[in-house]
Design goal:
The complex is a heterodimer of chains A (about 425) and B (about 120).
Chain A (H helix, E strand, L loop, with lengths): L8 H25 L4 H15 L4 E8 L4 E9 L10 E3 L5 H8 L3 E4 L5 E8 L4 E9 L8 H66 L6 H34 L7 E4 H16 L3 E6 L3 E4 L1 H18 L6 E7 L3 E8 L34 H11 L3 E7 L3 E9 L21
Parallel strand pairs in A: 8-10
Antiparallel strand pairs in A: 1-2, 1-6, 2-3, 4-5, 5-6, 7-9, 10-11, 11-13, 12-13
Helix pairs in contact in A: 1-2, 1-4, 2-4, 4-5, 5-8, 6-7, 7-8
Chain B lengths: L1 E2 L1 E5 L3 H13 L3 E5 L2 H9 L6 E5 L7 H7 L2 H4 L2 E5 L11 E3 L4 H14 L6 E2 L1
Parallel strand pairs in B: 2-3, 2-4, 4-5, 5-6
Antiparallel strand pairs in B: 1-7
The chains are: A alpha+beta (about 425), B alpha/beta (about 120).
Chain lengths: ~425, ~120
C-alpha cells in the first residue's frame, strides 16, 4: 500500500489521540498486572483504564447468584446510560449491559448529543464474568476498527486479571484454612497430652495410695474422692473433645428438638450449681419460656456459661441468670462481676482452644478453652446467636438469643460472588 | 533422725495434694509450690529442699525456666515430671505422667543419697 503524501489533518489528529490513548492504556494495563484482589482489579479497570480510553465514566457489573442476574459492583464518573451502583439487572432486561451479558458481544449504544455507551463483555478463561460499560462523549470514534480493538483488548485484560485475582483469593483462603486446621490439630494434640494426663496422673497416684495398707482412713476417703472428681474431669474433657471433633467434621452439632420449658431447665441447673459450687446465683424468669429446643444441649450451653461465671467472677458478688420470653425468641443472659474481658480478646473469645487471661486459675479449674466455642455452636445449631458485653461498671454478660421454633433453614453457604456456573 | 524435704512444684492442686500424701507416707517431708515463681520465692526466703519434683508446664513460671534460675547445687536435686513430650534437661531424671510412685521414690532417694551428708532437716 502506497503511503499517502498529504495526510488528512483530521486523520493525523486521530492518530495522535490514538497514540496518547495507547500510552495511557499501556500504563493502565501495567497497573492491572499489579493487582492482587478482585476489588483492586475493578478499581484499576474503572480508574486508570477508563481514563485511558477517554471515557467520562464507567461501570462494572458481574454475574451474581442467582446466575441470571448482573450486579453492578462499582460505578465511576458519570454519563448517560450508566447504571447505579449495586443495581441488579436481570439478563432479560432491555439494558445494553444485559444484552452484552446475553450475547457475549460488544454493543455500541448511541445516546443523545452524539455521546454513547460502549458495553464490553468480560471474558474469563472459562466463562463470561460480567460486562464493562463506558460512557463516551464521541461514539462515532468507534467506527474506527482500531478504536474498537483497543477497548476490547482492555476489557479482555480486565477479565483475565479478575480471573487471576479470584484464583489468588481462593488459593489464599484454602491455604489459610489448611494452616488453621494444622494449628488446631497441634492444639488438640497438646490438649490430649496435658489436659488428660494430669487428671489421669491424679487417679494413678490416688489408686497407688489406696494400695498402701498403712494409709489412714481419712486419707483413704480423700483418695477415693480425688479419683471420682478426676474421672469426672476427664469425662468432661472427652465430651468436649468429641463435640469439637464433631463440629470440625460435620460443621455443626446435631440438635434434637422437643418441647422444653426453659423455666424448669434453668431452675434445676441453677440449683445444681448453687449446691456444687457454693455460690450465690440469682435467677429471674419472665414471659413464655417454652419452645422446641434440645434440652441436653441447652443444659450444656448454660452450664458452660455458668462455669465461666464461677471461674472468672468476683466470688462475693452474685452471679445472675435472666431469661425473658418474646414473641418469636427467648433471651437468656448470664452475668457476673469481676475482671473485664479486654476488648482485644473479644473477637477470638468463641474460637476453639482459647482460654481466659486468668493464668492464676488452678489447673483443675481451667477448661480446655472449648467452653465458649461449644456455647456458640449450640446457639448456632438452634438458629440462635450469642453475644458478650464486658465493662468495669456493668460486669460481664453473655446473652443467648434462641428462636422458639426451628427457623427455616437457609440454603447452603453463599457461593463465590460473581461466579457464574456453566459456560459464558 | 534426718528427714528429706521435697519441694513439689505443680499447678494442679489435686496432684500436689496426692503427691504430698504419698511422699509423707514414704517418710519424706513434702512442701508444695503452685508454680515456678512460687517455688523460687520459697527458695529465696531460705528454704533449702532436699529434692525438687517439678512439673514442666505451668502458666506463671514453667519448670524449665525455674530450673535455669536455680543455683547449680539445687539443679542436681531436681526430678522432672511432665504431662507432655518429655524433654531432656541436663541429665535430670524425667518421669512422664502418669508414672508409678515407685519410680518417683527411687529417683528421689537417688537424688538425696548423692547429696553431702549432714544436709538434712532435723525433725
Amino acid at each position: 500500500m502506497a503511503p499517502n503524501p498529504r495526510p488528512d489533518p483530521r486523520t493525523a489528529l486521530r492518530a495522535s489521540h490514538s497514540r496518547s490513548r495507547l500510552t495511557r492504556l499501556s500504563d493502565g494495563l501495567r497497573q492491572l498486572t499489579g493487582t492482587r484482589t478482585p476489588e483492586e482489579v475493578i478499581a484499576v479497570a474503572l480508574g486508570p483504564c477508563v481514563a485511558a480510553l477517554g471515557a467520562r465514566g464507567g461501570a462494572l457489573a458481574l454475574f451474581d447468584e442467582p446466575e441470571l442476574e448482573l450486579r453492578v459492583v462499582r460505578v465511576e464518573g458519570e454519563g448517560a446510560g450508566l447504571p447505579r451502583a449495586s443495581e441488579r439487572l436481570a439478563l432479560t432486561s432491555p439494558s445494553p449491559l444485559a444484552e452484552v451479558a446475553r450475547l457475549g458481544q460488544p454493543v455500541f449504544h448511541g445516546t443523545q448529543g452524539g455521546g454513547g455507551l460502549v458495553v464490553l463483555p468480560l471474558p474469563g478463561l472459562d466463562q463470561l464474568l460480567g460486562v464493562l460499560a463506558l460512557a463516551v462523549a464521541d461514539l462515532a470514534r468507534f467506527d474506527d476498527p482500531s478504536e474498537r480493538a483497543l477497548v476490547e483488548v482492555l476489557a479482555q485484560h480486565c477479565a483475565l486479571a479478575l480471573d487471576r485475582a479470584r484464583t489468588l483469593v481462593q488459593e489464599r483462603t484454602l491455604r489459610e484454612t489448611a494452616e488453621r486446621d494444622a494449628l488446631l490439630a497441634r492444639r488438640l494434640i497438646g490438649v490430649m497430652g496435658h489436659d488428660l494426663r494430669n487428671p489421669l496422673h491424679v487417679i494413678s497416684v490416688a489408686a497407688q495410695l489406696l494400695g498402701q495398707p498403712r494409709l489412714p482412713a481419712t486419707s483413704r476417703q480423700r483418695a477415693a474422692n480425688r479419683i471420682a472428681t478426676n474421672v469426672q474431669r476427664m469425662g468432661r474433657i472427652i465430651e468436649d473433645l468429641l463435640d469439637f471433633t464433631r463440629i470440625q467434621t460435620e460443621g455443626q452439632l446435631p440438635v434434637s428438638r422437643r418441647p422444653v420449658d426453659l423455666r424448669e431447665l434453668l431452675r434445676e441447673l441453677v440449683s445444681d450449681f448453687r449446691m456444687a459450687h457454693g455460690v450465690r446465683i440469682g435467677l429471674e424468669l419472665s414471659g413464655d419460656l417454652e419452645g422446641a429446643f434440645d434440652p441436653v444441649r441447652l443444659s450444656q450451653l448454660f452450664s458452660n456459661l455458668l462455669h465461666n461465671a464461677v471461674r472468672y467472677g468476683d466470688p462475693p458478688r452474685p452471679i445472675s441468670v435472666n431469661a425473658e420470653g418474646f414473641e418469636h425468641e427467648v433471651r437468656i443472659s448470664v452475668h457476673n462481676h469481676g475482671a473485664v474481658i479486654p476488648e482485644s480478646l473479644r473477637p477470638a473469645l468463641f474460637e476453639p482452644f482459647r482460654r481466659g487471661p486468668h493464668h492464676e486459675l488452678e489447673r483443675s479449674q481451667r477448661g480446655l478453652g472449648l467452653g465458649l466455642f461449644i456455647v456458640r455452636q449450640i446457639a448456632v445449631s438452634h438458629g440462635g446467636t450469642v453475644e458478650v458485653t464486658s465493662s468495669e461498671q456493668e460486669g460481664t454478660r453473655f446473652t443467648v438469643a434462641l428462636p422458639r421454633r426451628d427457623p427455616l433453614r437457609a440454603s447452603g453457604p453463599a457461593g463465590q460472588a460473581g461466579m457464574r456456573p456453566g459456560g459464558g | 533422725m534426718g528427714v528429706d524435704t521435697v519441694l513439689i512444684v505443680d499447678d494442679d492442686s489435686d496432684i500436689r495434694a496426692a503427691l504430698e500424701e504419698m511422699l509423707e507416707l514414704e517418710g519424706f517431708l513434702p512442701q508444695s509450690a503452685l508454680d515456678g515463681a512460687d517455688a523460687l520465692a520459697l527458695i529465696r526466703r531460705g528454704f533449702v529442699p532436699g529434692a525438687i519434683v517439678l512439673d514442666l508446664m505451668m502458666p506463671v513460671m514453667g519448670g524449665e525456666e525455674l530450673f535455669r534460675m536455680l543455683p547449680p547445687a539445687l539443679r542436681e536435686r531436681c526430678v522432672v515430671m511432665t504431662a507432655g513430650e518429655p524433654r531432656p534437661l541436663d541429665g535430670v531424671p524425667v518421669l512422664r505422667k502418669p508414672f508409678e510412685m515407685d519410680a518417683l521414690i527411687r529417683a528421689l532417694r537417688a537424688v538425696c543419697a548423692a547429696r553431702p551428708t549432714g544436709d538434712r532437716t532435723q525433725r
